[in-house]
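can u do me a favor
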């Protein structure tokens, strides 16, 4: 069943989510009847306005369920600003039953190779989709160039939309965001193409190399030309923590530094101790993660992302209050796209 959605703005997310599920309960008998009668137009009239009221930029579809007969998918369609909202919608859903389950992103379909849809008036089946793959050495991603025999006959936007839909069928929407890098919908077949059905196996091989927590060390310069060093989780991706849209920046001045303003001696030890205690408390809380830290000009900034429902800022403020080398500062802001750590996202 095709996706529905349109762009706009939404307000009062919690109220919108509660209203959606009240409406779902009230219209459930009619929804079940439409599905039983295989009447997609009537189903769209029931579900479409409810999703629009939830947030007009979301898209939805009814797909085969994993355990239930049907799955209602309400997706942010790869929009990082909306992903936490979609996950909170699913978190508030009623328990799944024999008929319905609920997902905040499109799920991989084990029968993807058998699927066919109409694209620009042409038949688009995954059995004829091929892909050329490139895995940059040591990188947590797979670059994909996709081709289908109908692509020379449709426009760029249609090719791209069909490619992303096919990748979602093959991997699931979150896995596409997690592991795929550059995605190109090609007008001509690549020389080294292989059937797209092999893509999940390639992605699984890449993912095996990143099962353990890793950190990347980076260097650069400040706007004034000073040396800047940073450490960030690697890979670093908001899709791994979809409810963590609250940014907590902890700024710590330090006393001992080398000639380039980087921490040294007792200050370096104190910073390491602080990071260890902060990480331990965040792990214990279970609703926040330290994503990166940057040091320059005798100041270190640590970037924490948290679920706002977990009340993490007071915990961070308590730890920061013990910092002895100058006034620590804790700043809290909403940041669903993780823009504060954008240079480190992979």
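np, heres the sequence
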């Amino acid at each position: 069943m095709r996706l529905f959605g349109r762009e706009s703005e939404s307000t009062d997310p919690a109220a919108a989510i509660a209203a959606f599920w009240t409406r779902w309960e009230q219209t459930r008998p009619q929804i079940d009847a439409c599905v039983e009668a295989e009447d997609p137009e009537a189903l769209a009239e029931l579900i479409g306005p409810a999703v629009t009221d939830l947030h007009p930029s979301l898209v939805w579809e009814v797909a085969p369920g994993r355990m239930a007969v049907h799955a209602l998918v309400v997706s942010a369609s790869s929009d990082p600003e909306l992903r936490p909202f979609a996950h909170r919608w699913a978190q508030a859903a009623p328990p799944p039953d024999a008929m319905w389950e609920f997902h905040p992103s499109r799920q991989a379909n084990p029968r993807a190779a058998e699927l066919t849809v109409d694209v620009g008036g042409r038949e688009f089946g995954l059995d004829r989709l091929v892909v050329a793959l490139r895995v940059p050495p040591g990188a947590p991603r797979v670059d994909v160039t996709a081709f289908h025999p109908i692509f020379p006959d449709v426009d760029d936007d249609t090719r791209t939309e069909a490619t992303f839909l096919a990748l979602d069928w093959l991997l699931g929407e979150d896995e596409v965001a997690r592991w795929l890098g550059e995605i190109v919908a090609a007008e001509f077949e690549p020389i080294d193409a292989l059937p797209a059905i092999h893509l999940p196996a390639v992605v699984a091989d890449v993912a095996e190399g990143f099962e353990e927590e890793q950190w990347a060390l980076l260097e650069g310069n400040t706007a004034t030309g000073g040396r800047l060093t940073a450490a960030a989780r690697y890979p670093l991706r908001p899709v791994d923590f979809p409810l963590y849209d609250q940014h907590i920046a902890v700024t710590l001045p330090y006393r001992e530094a080398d000639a380039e303003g980087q921490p040294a001696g007792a200050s370096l030890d104190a910073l390491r101790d602080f990071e260890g205690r902060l990480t331990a408390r965040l792990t214990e809380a279970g609703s926040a993660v330290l994503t990166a830290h940057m040091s320059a000009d005798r100041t270190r900034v640590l970037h924490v992302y948290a679920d706002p429902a977990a009340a993490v800022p007071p915990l961070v403020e308590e730890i920061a209050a013990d910092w002895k080398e100058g006034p620590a500062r804790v700043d809290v802001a909403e940041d669903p796209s993780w823009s504060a750590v954008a240079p480190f996202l992979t």
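Residues 48 and 252 are 49 Å apart (CA to CA). hope that helps!!
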